[in-house]
Amino acid sequence: MPHRGSCLCGAVRLEIDGELHAPDACHCSQCRRMTGHYWASTDVPDAQLRISGAEHVRWYQSSAKVKRGFCANCGSVLFWKPLQRDTTAVSMGALETPTDTQLARHIFVADKGDYYRIDDGLPQNPQ
Fold this sequence. Notes:
By secondary structure, the chain is mainly beta. The protein has a single domain (3-111), classed as Beta Complex (Metal Binding Protein, Guanine Nucleotide Exchange Factor, Chain A). 6% of the residues lie in helices and 37% in strands. It is built from 1 helix and 10 strands; from the N terminus they run βββαβββββββ. The protein has one helix at residues 29-35; strands spanning 3-6, 13-16, 24-26, 39-45, 49-52, 57-61, 66-71, 77-82, 87-91, 105-107. A 7-stranded mixed β-sheet has the order 6-7-8-9-4-3-10. Strands 1-2-5 form a 3-stranded antiparallel β-sheet, with no helix packed on it. A hairpin with a 4-residue loop joins strand 8 (77-82) and strand 9. It is globular, with a radius of gyration of 14 Å. Belongs to the Gfa family. InterPro entries: CENP-V/GFA, Mss4-like_sf.
């Protein structure tokens, strides 16, 4: 049974075949600015990801190596796509529950906001 999800308005819907990889939480300044907090996502092989309403996805190239996808209608941040890889990071917040996975680690914690603590006991990578 595929995992399903969508943006806030439902214009973009997605399905993922197979089990989800354990997600990570990125605290870098770009992810914080794009989402309003930190970004939690799971890496999905492109062959296992189906997007309905792809015409509503807008892509913002945030660096020479990465682009970020969001819904043009409601602004939901949905994807983080490395340009040279055949995977797409999908927002955990866009997925319907149960996801049958748990957060595995925090990354770019050296850039995290000063208004919160990370005290869940998971591994924390400075970069």
